[in-house]
Every structure is written in C-alpha cells, then in structure tokens.
Design brief:
heterodimer, A: 339 residues, FAD/NAD(P)-binding domain, B: 4-stranded parallel sheet, 10 strands, elongated
C-alpha cells in the first residue's frame, strides 16, 4: 500500500475520506491551508435538524483521521504534470509525487458586504449567519445585544439565486439554517419577534419540513415572502428593513434590533487556483466541473482526480460525508485497477 | 470664350437636369413637411430664429463649418476630416466657380442656366482673348483635383477604415452602394470629359496636360460625346438615388442646423425634428465604435446609424428592438458629427408605445412629506438660521438608498461643513421620474415630477442636493424649481473645499475617476469631481474619459439587455479605467459603483465616501 493519495482540504469531506482510506489500509496526505482541521463546520455551533453539536462531529472526524499525514498551514505552490502522475510542491518545501488527488476544497461564504443595500459593514446591527454561529459558540459579539432584543430579522438568499451578485445557484442549506438560527434566537430571547424574509423555502431534506412547521407553530416565527429591498438605520441605532410581502401584495417596514444575512455558498478561490494548476474545468457557476452531474459527480474529467463535498456545488453536511465515503471507495477501486 | 453651338443644347444634359429638378423638388417638399410637422410654438420659434441676427450668423457659420469643412471630423481624425471636407468643400467650390465662369462669359442664359455651369466646357470654345480666364481654369482644375483626392481616400477607407481612426464602419444598403459608386464615378468622368474638350474650350494643368499626354485617344472628337454622356448619367443617377440613400444627409443637415440652433427639442417620435435628425444621418458609423454594446458583435446592428436606417424604412419590429436595447449612455450623441441625438430619439420611439395598463401614482398623498420637509419655512425652524448658510434639501434617491454608504458619507460631509440640511426621502420618497422617463412613459414620469415639485417647493429650501446623477439630470431638465439651485454632490463638495468649509487631507492613493453617463454627457459636469478628487489623492485618467467615457453597463436605460450581456460591457469599461493602473476606481453614481463593484479587482467607491474618509 505505497500509493500516495493527496487530499486537498482538511474540512469534513477531506477528513471523512481520509478516515475511510485509513480503514482501507492506505496512508493519505491531507493538505490544509489553515491552522486547524474542520473547515466551515468547525466554526458552526449546532447542525440541523437534530441540533447535533458541530464540535462533536468535527472532533470525531479529527480522531478518526488522525493516522493520516496532515500538513496544516500549508498551501500548494505549484503542480507539475509528469508522465502518469503529478508532482505537488507544497509551501513548506515538501514535494509529493502522486497519481491520485482528491479535491475537497469546499466553498467560500458569500461576502455579504457586496450586497450593499443590506448594510453589512455599514450598520452595526447587521451580521451574517456565520457571525451569529460565532456568537452562539463564544457569546462574544458586541453587535448582538444581551438584553432587550425585541425584534430580529433573517434575510434569506443573500448572494444566492441572485444574478446581480453573480451567483445564480441556490445555496441549498440557508433556508434550513435560517429556520434553525431563528429557533435558536427565539430560545435565547423568548420575548423577541423573529421575522424571516424569504423568496422560496426549500425544505428538501429529512425532517426539514417538520422543523419549519415547528418554527411557525411552536416558536411563532413570522415568515414573510418577499425580498428585502433596502435597509436603513434610525437614530437609536436600530435597523429599518423595507420589503414587500408578496403574498398580501403590500410593502412592509419593520424596525429590528438585529438583522442576520443568510450569506450563501460561492465557489472558493482556492478551488479555482487548484483547478488552474491541474487544468481542471470550471463550471459556469464557478464550482469545479464533474465528469457527469448525475452518475459521476465525484469524478473529475481527468484520470486519477476525484472530488468530494462543496467544491462541486453547495452541499449539506450529510451529503458531503456521503460523497467523501464514495470518493474514498472510488480511489480504492482505481488503485486496484491500476495494478 | 465663345459658344460653340447656336442652340446651346445637347441631349446629354437631360439625365443631369431631370435628376437635379427631382432632387430640388423632393427636398423642397420634404423641408416644408418637416417644418409643418413642428408643433406650432416650435415653428414660431424657428421662424423667429431665422431672422434673429445672432442665430442667423450662427446658422451660416455652422453650415459652413459643419457641412462644408466638417470641423468635428477634423478634430477626430485628420485624414477623415480631409476626406470629407475635400469632397464637400471641393465640390461646392466647383459649383460656385462654375457659376461665376458662366455668368462672366455668356449672355442671355435662359434655360441654359440649369446645366451650363456644369457642362460649360462642352458648349464653349476658347478664343485668344480669354487669357483672363486662366485663373478660373486653374481654379476649376485645382478643385477637381481636391475632390479627386478625397474620392481616392474614400476608396481607401472602404478597404482600410482603421487608417481613418475607425475600427468598424457601416454596412451600406443597396441604394447607398448605388449612390456611393455614382458619386465615386462623377469626378473621374468629369475629368475625362473635360480632357476631351480641353483643346477646344481650354483647360488648365490637369485637363490640358491629360489632353496632350493621351493625344491619340483624347483628341479624337468622336470619343467626346460618350464621355459627356457618362458624366451626365453619373450625376443623374446620383441625384435620383440621393433621397433614398444616406446622401440625403447633405440637404437635410442644412435644415437640421437652424432647427437645432432655434433650440427645438424632439416631441414627435417620427416627425419634425426627429425626422430631420434621421435623414441627417450620413451613415458614417462613428457611433458604432462609440457604442458600449459594441463589445458584443451581435449588438453592432443596434447602434444609432441602424436605428436611423430602420426608421427610414418604417421597420417597426426592428425599431422597437433597437430602441429598447440601448443603455441611453448618450455616447453616440456625443460623437455624432451631424448632431443626431441617439438617446433622445430612442426615448421618443419608446414613448409612442401604448400599454394596456400602467402604474397610477395620482393617489399618492404628499402632504405628509410636505409637512416633514418644511424645516426651512419661516417659523418652523427652531435653530437660528445663519444668513450665509444654505437651506439645503438632500434628495438621496432610490439608488442611493441601495448604497447606504454614500448616503452616510454625504450626510457626514454636510455635518462637517456645518450646513443646515434636511433629507427629503429618509423614510422612502417618490422616485425622481428619470427611470420612467427613460422607458418612454413620459406621463407617469411627469406625475412624479409634479409630486416631488410640491414637496420641494413646500420645504422652503434654497438648494436641492443630489448624490445620484440619474436624479440630477431629470431635476435639471424636466423640473421647474424657481429660486432653488439644483446641485450634484460633486459640485457641492467642490464648493465646500474651495470655500474652505471642508478640509481634505491629501493622500498618496491613485484614483481614477469614471464619468457617469448622466453626470458627464448628461449634465456636462466633468471638472468638479476631478478637482475634488485631486484634493484627496493623485488623479489619473482612464484611456477614454469625459465625453468619451464608457458606460458601466448597469444603466437603467436598457429595457431588454440581460445580465449576461451586460457583463462583457462592464468588463470592457473596467479595463478602460485600468489603463494607468490606479489603486481605486472612484465614480459619482451609485449605479456605476454597484455595477463596477461586481467585476472590478480593485476597490470601487463613490466620491463622497472617499472625501468623507479623508476630511475632517
């Protein structure tokens, strides 16, 4: 079992694939640019729909993948294509020759300040979904008032399904994340009015619909169908949100203590960089292009290159883990075929 | 000089005479129709302007400089200018000197006056005593040479338009081609015909030399008549196709110039001034290179030159397509050598469309707004108003509401400068009307203009400040606000800085300023933003700037362009701004800022946020 397997990205996809490959008897190499494993999930608090602590999920994966060769704080400097393999030069000076690369570079969170009309970075009381999870985790954010939260709003689809923001794809997870976060806010501030401004609610996953109904029935969260047009600030430092309730056909205006923007998933710059180095095709949505979107989503059009997770498009945590396992199996079969 | 023929007539003059009479009659009727189509008030103003000495002088000067010398083309490209003025001015001088010659050397002209100035050399023989005429001989040959050089350049331009500073030119229509080839052949044929008779009627360095050099062929008088026939036929064909080809611009421009100088605006989409503009289009195609949509090849046929052609053909579906697609950036208007207003022409086309239903704004009540904004009306103001201070009303507009950083910065600058102000639309206001105006829905736009006028006049303010040039333009053009100064924030900041009310720190950042269409070409504000920016950092220029600035691609003007199509335009505009590798793109329009922000690699900011950050 001397075959080198390089996994680019130490998020949940990379770790899950690594742990499966370890079980299969390989010794994969994980390359991670930051100083810790876990990617975006490590920064989350709880996962829908069962409120599983994200920390537990990550901790479990870190334990299971501990046997792999892990390079933290490491980036890929360049890749040379050899006859039937790749020579990967890392920023720490190590070079690896491999026939198999598993790309698990994931996604980036949409930069909410690009939607200037929502006032992120301009008004103090506007935060993103990630900021809120950070506050759930640490309780450290001056923007979230500890007392006197009377009204909180959530804006769905920030930078998703939005041609003006150059992202026409649906980010898949924000609908349910917004429902989850709205419930959590309501649990922390039972007196607060919580509004969700949505254009469609895509409750496709297991138990999502129950979760959504519970949010309305048990927590009294108000769902308003219509996009937010603009956000302004009043003299007290509260934010005023103007939207249209497209079901009643009337404009609505609410004053809020906190506005949470559900920033969507966009392609990660590092994915594009890796794609350029190995000359992999990029799809029209900016994510990596698979061999086939139905039967070969985890395979690149090139021999020996595999994908798992959100580098090919927005995915939920269970989808990502399933893809990682499938990719590990594909790698195993590919190595067997090579012999 | 004596006449050769007793009758002074030959059949070959007929094609020319018929053609000329046809063209004159056509133009006369056309001119009367256009003038009759003007609204009564405009017609009156037009006639008055014709007899006002000031406009009269301007008309004559403009006609001479534009129609004959083509000064605008000279400024653009010397070769292009020379080509046009050599043909136009040279031909004009040939006709003028031809007439002088005829009137000097013949008596009792009668009907001969119709064709003698053109075919004089055929009908006369030189006598010993005409040495005095040698100056005229020389002039005629000289101007013929000038025209021929122009024709030679025109032929080269057909093949190599880049030499003339044009990347793309118009695809000529069938009648344009007939006109073009007959025009090209007129002058060589004239040279040939006059060379045949040079040994009889006399000539100068060109015709006479040619006669001597090719003496075998040209001295054979049996060949003479066919050459004169060919010359006359070329003229006749040119005159007959002229009304149906682009060459109609020659007579129409002479009417368009006085109409424009009389200050007449387009009212009807197809009649009056609009018609004069459409027929004045020489199909030169300068608007093709200017058009920001030109980055996508498929849009080339949607430029103003093709709009004019389709309007002349009454091709309604294409007129609608072209009119709706346009971004209304006004660059074609800025570069047009004859003054066709491509943007206004399109708004007029949009305005004739009828909608089954539309928004109704009549029930919007503005009384609340009037009450909220009347801070400056005497007795309503608690704070003591300083006499030197502005009573300023700030209308942010909807685009600024979507870019709250601009509104914050503008308000902060107002506070820093100690200006007394009130925000007119803090809590949401009525649209300025420009988007509806651009869409051609003029009545809806006017409804909004009326409502806003009521609020502004009721406020007691003396200055109206705008941070969006889209609003600024309609406030300047369509609003009547007596006693109130309408000012854009770039102009306002410039004043504050020069009066010392706002202290700006100069940094080392290299800024490039993008001229928004509505602020630059729309309102003629170019210098103030540059002087403001120079106070905050180093100012660099884009490859194409000011009047030639390239639309960001986000314009509200287009009704049909999708985001995918606009992307290429924005990227092209960004590349234009990057020519001197600035650190930051600065603009003065919230829409340009949002559009560039999507595709630019370097930061994009409004001028107000830059100044607010760098001032105290």
């Amino acid at each position: 079992m001397k075959e080198n397997i390089v996994i680019i990205g130490g998020g949940i996809a990379g770790m899950e694939a690594a742990s499966q490959l370890l079980d299969l008897g390989y010794k994969p190499i994980i390359i991670e640019k930051s100083d810790h494993l876990g990617g975006h999930v490590a920064e989350w608090n709880c996962l829908f729909p069962d409120m599983t602590p994200a920390g537990d999920v990550v901790k479990n994966l870190v334990t299971r993948s501990a046997g792999a060769n892990i390079f933290l704080n490491t980036e890929i400097s360049f890749v040379n294509k050899l006859k039937d393999s790749y020579n990967i030069m890392l920023s720490n000076g190590i070079s690896i020759i491999t026939k198999i690369i598993l790309v698990t570079t994931g996604f980036s969170l949409f930069d909410a300040s690009k939607k200037e009309e929502y006032g992120y970075g301009i008004y103090d009381q506007v935060i993103t979904n990630k900021d809120l999870e950070h506050w759930f985790n640490t309780g450290d954010d001056k923007r979230v008032g500890d007392c006197g939260m009377n009204a909180v709003g959530f804006v769905h689809c920030v930078g998703s399904r939005d041609e003006k923001a150059r992202n026409s794809q649906c980010s898949k997870v924000c609908c349910i994340t917004a429902v989850k976060q709205a419930i959590e806010i309501k649990q922390k501030f039972p007196e607060a009015m919580v509004y969700c401004f949505y254009m469609d609610l895509r409750m496709f996953g297991k138990k999502y619909e129950d979760f959504y109904i519970s949010a309305q029935r048990d927590y009294g969260i108000r769902f308003i169908r219509g996009r937010v047009s603009e956000v302004s600030e009043n003299i007290d430092g509260k934010v005023i949100v103007k939207a249209e309730d497209t079901l009643s056909g009337k404009p609505v205006k609410v004053t809020l203590d906190l506005l949470v923007l559900m920033a969507g998933m966009v392609c990660c710059k590092d994915s594009t960089k890796v794609a350029n180095m190995i000359s992999l095709p990029v799809d029209s949505d900016g994510f990596l292009k698979s061999r086939d979107n139905v039967t070969g989503i985890i395979e690149a059009p090139k021999e020996g290159i595999f994908y798992a997770g959100a580098c090919t498009g927005p995915k939920t945590v269970p989808e990502t883990l399933a893809e990682a396992r499938a990719a590990a199996l594909n790698v195993h079969l590919y190595i067997n075929r090579m012999k | 000089m004596r006449e050769r023929f007793l009758t002074g007539y030959n059949d070959f003059v007929l094609p020319f005479v018929c053609g000329m009479l046809f063209v004159l009659a056509y133009c006369l009727i056309g001119m009367i129709r256009i003038i009759m189509q003007l609204p009564g008030e405009d017609r009156k103003r037009f006639f008055i302007s014709l007899v006002t000495p000031k406009t009269l002088v301007k008309n004559i000067k403009d006609i001479f400089l534009k129609c004959l010398i083509h000064v605008d083309l000279w400024k653009r490209n010397k070769l292009l200018g020379y080509m046009h003025s050599s043909i136009a001015f040279g031909w004009f001088m040939l006709i003028l000197v031809g007439h002088i010659e005829v009137f000097l050397y013949t008596s009792n002209l009668g009907a001969k006056a119709l064709y003698y100035p053109i075919f004089f050399r055929y009908f006369v023989a030189e006598t010993e005593s005409t040495m005095k005429g040698s100056l005229i001989f020389f002039l005629m040959d000289f101007f013929l040479l000038v025209v021929l050089s122009g024709i030679a350049l025109a032929i080269i331009k057909r093949v190599r338009s880049r030499l003339f500073g044009m990347r793309r030119t118009t695809n000529p229509s069938f009648t344009d081609l007939i006109g073009l080839y007959s025009l090209w052949s007129i002058f060589p044929l004239r040279l040939l015909a006059e060379s045949f008779t040079a040994d009889i009627s006399g000539g100068s360095f060109l015709t006479k030399s040619l006669n001597y050099v090719f003496t075998e062929f040209l001295s054979n008088h049996a060949n003479m008549l066919p050459a004169w026939w060919a010359y006359s036929c070329a003229l006749g064909i040119f005159f007959f196709v002229l009304p149906f080809s682009r060459y109609m611009h020659i007579p129409t421009e002479i009417l368009l110039i006085p109409l424009r100088n009389a200050g007449i605006r387009i009212v009807n989409a197809r009649k009056g001034l609009a018609k004069a503009q459409v027929y004045s289009c020489p199909s030169c195609g300068l608007c093709i290179d200017a058009c920001p949509m030109g980055v996508l090849k498929g849009n080339i046929r949607d430029t103003t030159v093709y709009l004019n052609r389709q309007i002349r053909r009454n091709n309604e579906s294409r007129i609608e397509e072209i009119s709706d697609k346009c971004l209304l950036c006004g660059k074609c208007t800025a570069v047009c050598p004859v003054g066709v207003e491509g943007d206004k022409l399109r708004i007029a086309q949009r305005s004739i469309r009828r909608y089954n239903f539309g928004p109704d704004y009549s029930n919007i009540d503005v009384q609340n707004e009037v009450r909220r904004c009347n801070k400056f009306v005497n007795g309503n103001n608690n704070s003591v108003s300083r006499p030197d201070s502005h009573k300023l009303l700030y209308f942010a507009g909807c685009m600024t509401a979507l870019t709250p950083a601009i509104m914050q910065a503008t308000e902060s600058i107002l506070k820093k400068s100690g200006t007394e102000y009130e925000v007119m639309d803090r809590d949401g206001g009525i649209c300025c009307g420009r988007p509806m105006f651009m869409a051609g829905r003029l009545e809806e736009a006017r409804e909004m203009v009326r409502k806003n006028t009521e609020i502004i006049l009721g406020s007691g303010a003396d200055t109206l400040l705008l941070s969006c040039p889209i609003c600024y333009r309609i406030f300047r053009e369509e609003y009547s606000l007596p006693g109130i100064r309408v000012i854009h924030h770039t102009e306002f900041m410039n004043e504050l800085i020069s009066e010392g009310k706002l202290k700006v720190r100069k940094g080392s950042t290299r800024y490039v300023f993008h001229d928004p269409c509505e602020l630059g070409r729309g309102c003629g504000v170019y210098e103030q933003p540059r002087s403001v920016l120079s106070a905050a950092g180093e100012l660099v220029e884009a490859a194409k700037n000011r009047r030639e600035s390239i639309c960001c691609g986000g314009s509200l003007g287009s009704l049909t362009l999708g985001f995918d199509k606009r992307k290429a335009m924005t990227e092209n505009a960004v590349a234009n701004l990057m020519s001197e590798s600035p650190d930051e793109i600065v603009t003065a329009c919230p829409l340009c800022q949002a559009t560039f922000g999507r595709y630019s690699e370097i930061p994009v900011e409004d001028i107000a946020t830059v100044i607010d950050r760098n001032s105290k």
